[in-house]
Amino acid sequence: MLQRSIRHILRRPYFMFSNEPKKPEQTGFDQKDSNEQLKQAIDNENEDQGSKSSNMYIYAFGSLGLIVCYAFMQVTTLNFDNKSKKKELKVSYTGKAQIGGPWKLLTTDGQTMTHLDLKGSYYLIYFGFCNCPDICPASLLKLSKALERIRQSPEGKIIKLKTLFVSVDPDRDSDEKINKFLAHFDKSIIGLKGATNDDPDLKEAMKQFKIYASKIKFEEQDSTTKSPKNSYTIDHTIITYLMDDENNYVTHLGSNMSEFDLARNIVDKILENEREKIRR
Prior knowledge:
- By secondary structure, the chain is of the alpha+beta class.
- The protein is about 45% helix and about 20% strand.
- The termini are far apart.
- Strand 8 and strand 9 form a beta hairpin.
- The chain is elongated, with a radius of gyration of 51 Å.
- About 20% of the residues are buried.
- The strands form 2 sheets. It has a 7-stranded mixed beta sheet with strand order 2-1-5-4-3-8-9. The chain has a two-stranded antiparallel sheet with strand order 6-7.
- The chain has 6 helices and 9 strands.
């Protein structure tokens, strides 16, 4: 009997001797529901992971697209700039400025000189006046130094070049005054003028060479009487023109050029003009 009782006790479930509550046994339906819930949880987790992966792909492709667009814009801009530069390099100009033409003026010895007297020789022509305080003397001084450099160069031995100074103020610039003024500069410079400031021949020559000149009146003290008197200066175009041996415009020379630049430009333009004549 004792042995049988012991066997019975040993066969009894453990929870009978435990404080833990007895767990209900799972039926077939409960196991099925648990499996479905586990599967649903796994599916949900997979969907979350798939959604995250999709978002990562979208971000990646979006970033790549922005990079491609930026690169395309840079390449397009670069190509446009290159094309613009190429177009600029292809721009060329033909023809010459309508400067110069027939003219007739007076020399300081009272003789008439026209453009025809210079046929066969290149010439420089500068318009100014003897009372000019600084610009005209400075321009003629640089031009004189440039002429000396040209004469000392190999090209100067074969180049025929003359230089003209035209007074835009013959009312005050007498023949003697012009000669005295030009004595400070290169001896080859020829002084020219009109009969008066309103001389039609002088006005026509200024028109042909696009020269502007205007009186600016002011009051100054007379050096003899010490009393005030009316006077004027002249505002005028400050430029030197280079004309060829057929009285055609070749180039112009600004007053800001140095004597070296003047000499080099004069020689280069004359030689270039002669080469063009040969090609024609």
